[in-house]
């Protein structure tokens, strides 16, 4: 159980042929040789993230076509001509390439790579090549069947900005899916995750300058191919999602409301507690569980660490029930004189499951001469970083969707050198403020922890049934606590 003498905060840190055409025909008789799709390996991930659309058009052509009898070429930025190029390329089954000031040479090289005999110029374009210029045929043979490439998925950040790449993809027979406006992480785009899952183990091409900021495209695609999505869609924990969770330990009512009933009943109760928030929230609300896996103990125990580690078998029914109900589960650690990484590794089998996240509670991280309830514990940023690095590696190596890493905190001293905490694309970070007591005190703690906090953190809040005076209603929690918390827990 937690100390009752001071207001407290829970910090959740949940802590990545060719294009271009023009009019003049300089050769006669259309070439009818069949284009050949690129022989990409089934799990190839290609990123066309150059800053200009012309370079991206060449990259997409390389990714999807091994050869082509020709290509359609247009000038980058000429919307009308690109639209005409796309139509011609679709009929002839050849790529669309764009020229710009610095890319005409690249286009010429791509024509040579494709083994093209001709190119059609749409509009006023200039390509320094010996390849002849003429109109594309009204129809052409589809590319040689290459199952991997024909089942490729082309994810486009902005279809209007990359109309040429979209045309090339369609000419190759690939599936095209467009990112939602303003979203740059495929993990946060439900339709993209679905598309990648449906074509798992086939090539993926990410097109758009926005993808330049994607830290690990291979992992992002692999995780999406697994197909797991949060209840309201997508894989990124705190991107458009809000959670209302029950907190506690199995079979221990004194430690929180989660322990007052069994797994199935906890699912039902969590649904009931979360329901009122849906009318108050501008983001989709999902019920959740925060399960204490290691409980700070009043005696040293056989291992002398003043922490009782619940067996995985005790937690599994809750994890399974939550999974069946599309609820995430946060595994909470109170390590006593042990350390967070050692304890986290005990629950690796659970953390290998999608939708199972991790929380660290520094209040109960003690030195070798401390015991629970006699002082407030603390953790160094370096220890937090050890855990986050291990968890991020686990997510990456297993091809899991992103996880949340939660840090409990109600004093600045509980997390030493907070500015040194490292972030990882595989983890979302959320600061969850769980102070108890009077609302002025809780708000004061909430505000204090926000001062100087690292950027990019999400924030959460805890409501105590017995200790808060008074406990906020769902409407008050959403209106009075600003910024609005992404995670609200009940103890």
Regions with little confidence, pLDDT below 50 for 5+ residues: 1-32
Principal-axes geometry comes out as elongated
DSSP summary: helix tally: 14
Helix content: 25-40%
Structural class: alpha/beta
Spatial gap, N to C terminus = 11 Å
**Strand numbers in spatial order across the main sheet:** 12-13-15-16-18-20-21-22
Could you give a short account of the major beta sheet?
8 strands, parallel, barrel
Average pLDDT works out at 89
Radius of gyration: 28 Å
Task: Describe what this molecule looks like in 3D.
It is a single chain. This protein is elongated. It starts with 18 loop residues before the first strand and ends with a strand. It contains 14 helices and 22 strands. By secondary structure, the chain is an alpha/beta fold.
How would you summarize what this structure contains?
The chain is α/β, with parallel strands linked by helices and 491 residues long.
Keywords:
about 500 residues; 8-stranded parallel β-barrel; 5-stranded parallel β-sheet; 14 helices; disordered N terminus
Question: Topology, pairings included?
Answer:
Elements: E1 19-20, E2 36-37, E3 45-48, H1 53-64, E4 65-67, E5 70-75, H2 79-92, E6 96-99, H3 104-114, E7 118-122, E8 132-133, H4 147-150, E9 153-156, H5 163-172, E10 175-178, H6 190-198, E11 204-207, H7 217-225, E12 241-248, H8 263-274, E13 284-296, E14 307-309, H9 312-324, E15 329-333, H10 340-346, H11 348-351, E16 356-360, E17 379-380, H12 381-398, E18 403-408, E19 415-416, E20 427-433, H13 439-450, E21 458-463, H14 474-480, E22 487-490
Helix pairs in contact: 1-3, 1-5, 2-5, 8-9
